[in-house]
Design brief:
The structure is a single chain. The chain is α/β, with parallel strands linked by helices and 274 residues long. The protein contains 13 helices and seven strands. The longest helix is centred in the middle third of the chain and has 21 residues, at 147-167. It has a seven-stranded mixed β-sheet, with helices on both faces.
């Protein structure tokens, strides 16, 4: 069964898309079969990966399109389902649906042939992210190495715990990725130290500030293609290796739990963690 991983943080600007793209492409380069799902209406995956599609996440979630119609082949080991701004409407439309929190799970419950399915999530605690958490069995949380970043990460962990409790689900935080790290900056060093002391079993090596990571999307390339000798490429390659090494560690996570209970509308995940 595929490892279903949401790359998630309610806080924006923490390198979620950069992490999703370079983790996914890095895994594919290591011979893993990977599907990247863009669940962010900003559609930033399209800015990073060169692949065209007539149908996207809106068609999958709202128009009942077959997943095969929405999946775009990037290379032999990498596929993508893209999104665009129309996905914003999907959240409002889904509000009127039964089992609205599990639409993504139901649509992709039997999608075969992948070792990893990575979901790039929007910066929110809205319905799209609830769908992502209930689809995934694992969560990777990129966190900017500053005080607000650490605070946002803690709230995200609380949100995952709450949605697990409310829906009888199991989504496990398996990696915390410190991003935007500047070793010359005192605040960055303090934030990294705090993460390592409180979450030492989960924290990866940091992703350093690197201009090449910002430049790569402008030519629709991963960091490995754009600047393979850069610190950004080295950092993400190390993360890929760590994630692969964790395969045995997380092999016993429940990959196909019972369908979660439908929400009774009385509990707000957002209100629960604010």
């Amino acid at each position: 069964m595929a490892r279903r991983i949401c790359i998630i943080n309610q806080k924006g600007g923490v390198a979620k898309t950069t992490t999703t793209v370079n983790l996914g492409i890095g895994l594919a380069m290591e011979g893993k079969k990977v599907l990247i799902i863009d669940l962010d209406p900003q559609g930033n995956i399209s800015s990073c990966i060169n692949a065209d599609s007539k149908k996207d996440m809106f068609d999958l979630l709202i128009e009942n399109a077959d997943p095969g119609e929405c999946i775009v082949r990037v290379n032999d080991n990498l596929d993508v389902i893209k999104s665009k701004e129309t996905l914003t409407k999907a959240e409002f439309i889904l509000m009127g649906e039964q089992a609205r929190e599990t639409v993504l799970r139901n649509k992709l419950s039997r999608i075969p042939g992948y070792d990893y399915i990575l979901v790039d999530c929007p910066p929110s605690l809205g319905l799209l992210n609830q769908n992502a958490m209930l689809f995934a069995n694992e969560a990777i949380i990129p966190v900017s190495t500053d005080i607000l970043g650490v605070d946002g990460m803690k709230k995200m962990i609380m949100a995952i715990d709450k949605i697990n409790e409310v829906f009888g689900h199991t989504c496990t935080v398996t990696k915390i990725v410190p991003t935007l790290y500047d070793k010359r900056n005192k605040v960055c060093k303090q934030a990294l130290s705090k993460l390592q002391s409180e979450y030492y079993e989960l924290v990866s090596d940091p992703i350093h500030m690197n201009s090449k990571l910002k430049e790569a999307p402008s030519v629709k390339q991963s960091i490995y293609e754009y600047a393979k000798t850069s610190s950004g490429a080295r950092d993400y390659h190390a993360l890929v290796k760590h994630v692969i090494r964790d395969e045995e560690k997380y092999a016993n996570l429940d990959r196909n739990p019972m369908a979660p209970k439908a929400s009774n509308g009385k509990i707000s995940i957002k209100e629960a963690v604010i």
